[in-house]
Amino acid sequence: MQPMALGTTLTLLLLLAFFGITFVISLSISKKQENADSYMTAGNNVGFGISAASMTATWIWAASLYASATSGYTYGLSGPIHYGLWGALMILFIYPFGKRIRSLAPRAHTLAEILHARHGQSSQLLLAGSNLLGSLLSLTSNFIAGGALISMMSPLSFSTGVLLIAGGVLLYTLWSGIRASMLTDFIQVCAMLGAVVIVVPMIFFAAGGSSIFVEGAQNLTAQQQSFFSSDAFFNQGAPFIAAVLAYAIGNQTIAQRLFAVREDMIKQTFVTATVGYGATVIGVGMLGVLALYIGIDPADGDVNNLIPQLAAGYLPLAFLCVFFIMIIGSLASTADSDLAAMSSIVMTDIYGRNIAGKTGAKPQLMLLIGRITMIVATGMAMYFASSRFDILDLLVLVGAIWGALVFPVIASFYWNKVNNTGFTISVLAALAVFTLVRTGWLPLEGTIAVVTDLLSVVGIGVIAGLMIFGFFGLRAGVAAVVVAMLITLPFALGFLHQYPVLTASLLAYAVSAILCVVLSWFNKDEFDFDRIARHAGQFDTQNT
Questions:
Q1: E strands within 204-354?
Q2: CATH 1.20.1730.10-classified regions of the chain
Q3: 253 contacts: CB under 8 Å, gap ≥ 6
Q4: Distance between CA 130 and CA 256 in Å, rounded?
Q5: What pTM value is reported for the model?
Q6: Would you give the distance in Å from CA 198 to the centre of its chain?
Q7: 11, 68, 218, 277: which could form a disulfide with 83 (CB 3.0–4.6 Å)?
Q8: Mind telling me which residue stretches traverse the membrane in this protein (predicted)?
């Protein structure tokens, strides 16, 4: 396999063409006097086509494509399925909760803003802080993917690639915010899906077609050859199941599109994005399986290089350019969403609802703050990208951190007894336990192992209960909790603690749920949910 490079001139021309077109599109929708609310939520009135395409493009990001391929290379046949299937459910499971959230606050900008109206400052800032961290890690992983792609396929260095990607994304997103992100997403997803349909089969047949599965079978272990690999499930699938609701609730890029889409189009938008994401990411993830069968070693020992390495080795120049644009489009579509998400959080949750207060917020100053946030976030992500973290590890980490927030956040939207004290203590305690286990500071041995296994069973019940509750209501949700715990208890004891990543994620769910329920149960004050719509509204209209 002789890798083909694009060359410096061709790489720069492709980047110039891609980011030039997106910049022109952004200019075409720009306004001389931007509106702060429109900058964050696009007027809450985006139609089905653009919303579904934007949601799909936002989640078919370069990090997902790379991480799915890494999962295939590491765990074999079932790796991409575990990654793509549970990743798709991240999108689907926001639908029932999304309808509830929009009904409570039709004009909100962020989930943290709703928590400010529901609980107050500390709960709001906990969620806003985790959202900022998650979006910054997501932005970093996209820059890493872009730098790896450019350094692999051209003479340009990794750091130069990161700089080019960061500058291009910032250029077209800075002025119009979420509107620029969503409109360019529509163009990007059309090109991306078309490229996937062409590129993946071409690499497969160029590498040898179906004969690969016979000739390369010796390169796989028994676990890697199985569609029902327990190794893949407990190391990849199960942690992602735990992350499903966490991403849905904790990720502002999803929430921002939830607030932007027309309220009557929420279901269609999220179902369409679920199907599009799952099919595409599983398909691209099979390239990692292909690399495993062929016996390819990742360049420089970095698994992030697998996809560009395969493309450079098996695609002719014209289709290599198509592949290059596909990956650039996928990472740009999420990077611009992360920038828009972080700007809306700082504009709304830090300045709008806290520093200025609702009556004192100045929309034009908010816009300036949002744009400065984008610039600062881009600089920070570029700095962190220089460390070249493993993308798959970043995704699992941020999903688990958000797991501590899931139950308290969802309960706050349905149960009128949840208060600020219960919310804050439960989240902080869950984050502390998660950190102790995830870092290995708390050895999972002896009595501690037994206790963590028992709590992990509770965590499994909480996840199952929330998933069922969203679609079928409280009774079905409680029944799912009991059934899930009874089924998993016999094999979980003495077993689950052997998987610290999974255990840490499940403990975050269990600890936050137990403490939130206990601390809220005897609360005599009952919250009036009608107050949320009155306190989570638009900024521009209140000053006119």
A1: none
A2: 8-403
A3: 58, 135, 138, 334, 337, 338, 340, 341
A4: 15
A5: 0.83
A6: 26
A7: 68
A8: 6-25, 46-69, 81-98, 125-150, 156-174, 186-213, 233-250, 270-294, 314-335, 365-385, 391-415, 422-441, 447-469, 476-496, 502-522
